[in-house]
Amino acid sequence: MTGQSSRLATDRYFAPDPGQRRVARGLYDGVASLPIVSPHGHVDPRLLADPDATFGTPTDLFIVPDHYVFRMLYSQGIPLEALGIPRRAGAASGGGPAPEADPRRAWQVFADNQHLFRGTPSGAWLSAELAGVFEVDEPLRSANAQAVYDAIESKLAQPAFRPRALFERFRIETLCTTDDAADPLDAHQAIRASGWPGDIRPTFRLDGVVNVSSPGWRSRLDALSAAVGRDITTTAGLVAALEERRAHFRSLGAVATDHGVETAYTGRLEPSEADAIFARALRGEVSVGDAQRFAGHLLIELARMSVEDGLVMQLHVGSFRDHNLAVLERFGPDMGADIPLAAEFTRNLRPLLDRFGNDPRLRLILFTLDEAVYSRELAPLAGHYPALRIGPPWWFHDSLNGIARYLDAVTETAGIYNLAGFNDDTRAFCSIPARHDVWRRASANWLAGLVVRDVVDEATASQMAADLASGLAKRAYRLDDGR
Predict the structure, then answer these.
(1) What's the rounded mean pLDDT across residues 364-387?
(2) Are residues 143 and 199 in the same domain?
């Protein structure tokens, strides 16, 4: 972790009870310096492919890649253009940065509205980034915005603040990116060829070709066809292409796949029915029901592939993507307008689990945005099926209170050893140590509560804290097997 700033409280996030706070402090001190294992996230690997790469301006670093930040500002009526968010190519007003998007002006808007982040996870992460990484020892506000900008800009120009240098300073042991199924992975190949020892691994993301009713599906299928050098015209052809691409990802160190779906529905289709749906998709005539059944069929196929090739399967369930059509049309996808949906796993996953749930060669990590299913479904499922693990609190629930709710809800049934540990799931590189620090502090505080209630002793809690900090993630993602 980075050095502590004088304005970051040493015992932040710990309970006020003196006994619990003392134990929490000791548990946290035992894990604070452990290397970071980041098995799922969205950092652009190109940042680490070029040893001379920089983060650009402070605005490029703190605002543009972080939808947690700009969605909050947008909620108060601040245009995304004013924050330096580039418009999508082909937008009615033209692609690229808006004319008014001066980085300093955007930073001033950001500073003028710091009050919006009070008491939020983003506020905690931003404070830790500014103080712990850039040694800004006073809160960002309107009056000091430009001075802070200058200080950060000066540091970003130094070799010690280039991405590779911060990777090493943050003590990141492994960082997994998320990459499209058709991505040639040039950046990952460049990292390996450079001789730099940083462990950066791709993750196989295939939503774009599995969800046949999604906008732009045909162009993504064409990209996959180009990647394998042949037209994909049948379901069997698609499956073969995915198997081929998975092998390429594995050759560059991938340990996992990633699937973002609205529901956890799985179900087998007869080959003729799957091909009929695929043919309708090629003609642009696929229905929502068709798309759901086809995706459910492919999830079972993908689980079969994971059994065979060992890639860990991640299933992120329950996000209504790009809810704000105006933002989607102007700025493209993943612009902070994704909204949680209710989820159901018990019935939806049963066809997949009937085939592979008892097979320990499958490792399926389940994520949800619906906290109601933590104790009702996920903990009982993962507490029974050898193939399942529960992913950490995701997205809107990656917070101090969200972590506590999660641990309370899942551990009584599943224990901690059916959990997948923590991943930061971030695009904002400098927030990585901050997010892991919140998890480690929240876990230490939760474990201290068990200690003071005599549920476990301190020695046991210390081992549990280390497992929650990094050990569970290593085991869940098979990063401890020498691959």
Answers:
(1) 98
(2) no
